[in-house]
Amino acid sequence: MKDEASVGSAEALSGSTAPGGGHEQRPVHSPPELSRVYGSETVTEKRAHYERWARTYDFDLECGMGWAAPATVVGLLRKFLPDKSSKILDAGCGTGLVGAELSKSGYRQLTGIDFSAQMLRQAERRGIYSSLSEGDLTKPLDLSDRFDATLCVGLFGFGPPHVEHLHHLTATVPPGNPTIVTINSKGWDAMNWAEKLPREIEHRRLEMKLLQTIDYLPKVRIDARLLVITRQ
């Protein structure tokens, strides 16, 4: 993975690479389910797509698209937060693919939230979460607990949620603790994250700890930005 400088670097935030840099996005035909999700403009529309997709989601993502982000994100979490007794919020947990990777790595205090009841039913079958509940990341999260780290893998990009909703995640952890987020690179470009993210970080008094490009859905040639932010 290639480190991508600081929030002040226009080149880093734009995601542009020189020829041969390894991150070229050659055009491919996205699977229909992915195209429907990317085209959703409201939470209600997006939820409906995930409700229908829940039953085949794991197979489609892992076998059909090569879903690579969970292992990368959890590997990074181990560096930021090696204590396996830490309380982790898996925001937008879906069917629990990230939770499964967390559990495999020894993390046991896992809370999951998602806006799709059908996805949560799939996650519950794994038996790895202490708590699962419905939640909409475009709104402040009504959670009684505070967490040592919050992860959100596979949700940000085209939106909703959008860049202005990141602070709903950082509010769930103490100042200085990590919130780790992936941002689909196609959504990053389409929604102008390179321009909006620095403004949001400054406005919310956040601090960027890391910004990298990572493999995401390699079988359909989609990568992502991996972002680590903290509250000051």
List the topology elements.
Blueprint: E1 2-3, H1 10-14, H2 32-38, H3 43-53, H4 57-65, H5 69-80, E2 87-91, H6 97-104, E3 109-114, H7 117-124, E4 131-134, E5 149-156, H8 166-170, E6 179-184, H9 185-190, H10 193-203, E7 206-217, E8 222-231
Report on this structure.
The chain is of the alpha/beta class and 232 residues long. The chain has 10 helices and 8 strands. It has an 8-stranded mixed sheet, sandwiched between helices. Strand 7 and strand 8 (222-231) form a beta hairpin. The longest helix is centred in the first third of the chain and has 12 residues, at 69-80. The radius of gyration is 16 Å and the shape is globular. The protein starts with a strand and ends with a strand.
Characteristic key phrases:
232 residues, alpha/beta, 8-stranded mixed sheet, 35% helix
Give a brief description.
This protein is α/β, with parallel strands linked by helices and 232 residues long.
Q: In percent terms, what proportion of residues is strand?
A: 15-25%
Q: Compute the separation of the termini in Å.
A: 27 Å
SS content category: alpha/beta
Strand order within the widest beta sheet: 1-7-8-6-5-2-3-4
The average pLDDT is 89
